[in-house]
Amino acid sequence: MTLGASILPKQGLGAGVKMSDDTFRQTREFIYQQTGIYFQDNKKYLLEGRLGKRLQVLGLGSFEEYLQLIKYGTRRNEEMKFFYDAITINETFFFRNEPQFEAFERTLVPAIMSGRNGGARHKLRVWSAASSSGEEAHTIAMIYLERLRPKYPLLDLEVVGTDINTSVLETARKGVYRDYSIRNMPKYYLEKYFTAEDGRFAVHDDVRRYVRFDHLNLYDQARMRQMGSFDIIFCCNVLIYFDTPSKIQVVSNLYDSLNRGGYLFIGYAESLHGISTAFKLENFPKTVAYKKE
Ligand SMILES: C[S@@+](CC[C@H](N)C(=O)[O-])C[C@H]1O[C@@H](n2cnc3c(N)ncnc32)[C@H](O)[C@@H]1O
Q1: Domain boundaries 98-291, corresponding CATH code
Q2: Which mutation among 135, 184, 221, 238 tests ligand 1's pocket best, with the greatest number of atoms within 8 A of CB?
Q3: Does the predicted TM-score (pTM) go above 0.85?
């Protein structure tokens, strides 16, 4: 039985408990060592609120006890899942950054295909790194079905979505979404690739069959090296949570996971300035991509 299922909130304990500055610094350091995510001083309230809920569930009276549990407790491994779920921000939606998907479809895939032997089969491998609940990964599969497969009948697709948060991965694997996720989706795609059920939207198996989801911490170098090689990596809206040294480490591992001629996309508010000089920056309408030459 998992911790979450076995322990019900214990009234009183944990509620309204304050985190001392010292415990905040120790917790922040622990998070940083495990994930590369760095909580600035002004984010103490966020940790207090989110981890405070774990205190309640576990019936703990202080953040110090909680820190002991996740660092040294016998149930440490079980709790780490809930810990990662509590500290991550998982905002995402379908067709989030449309100019990226346009560059992907109109320029990047044609460029990759032109470098291949014309008549040969090719499996395009795309990684949605920090996929959250899978909206980006499923968007890529829909674009493939709608725009790429008709043009390149010998082109196959594999999208791998990874995230550190196991709850969002469960949603990704189910492929059932709420209104929020579909708010930017063209109606055409919604009608063609989803079934509406009780106010939820279930993505069709025809789309899901190209996508799989795995648990992966981008800060775990050993696991990163096992990811294999990709034609295109989307690693969007996650580098903002890292400090410079962890961005350098993660981006260097992403570089190693790209095929020559492959491309990396990052979030539109993110940049590789001061992080990596290994890529060639390419400009597209309203977006950029980083090429491994
Ligand atoms: C804001 S969401 C971005 C989702 C999607 N890429 C997008 O742009 O819409 C950030 C995701 O990064 C994940 N994340 C944060 N730190 C991570 C790490 N060290 N390893 C893997 N995923 C991480 C979070 O769990 C969260 O789902």
Answers
A1: 3.40.50.150
A2: 238
A3: yes
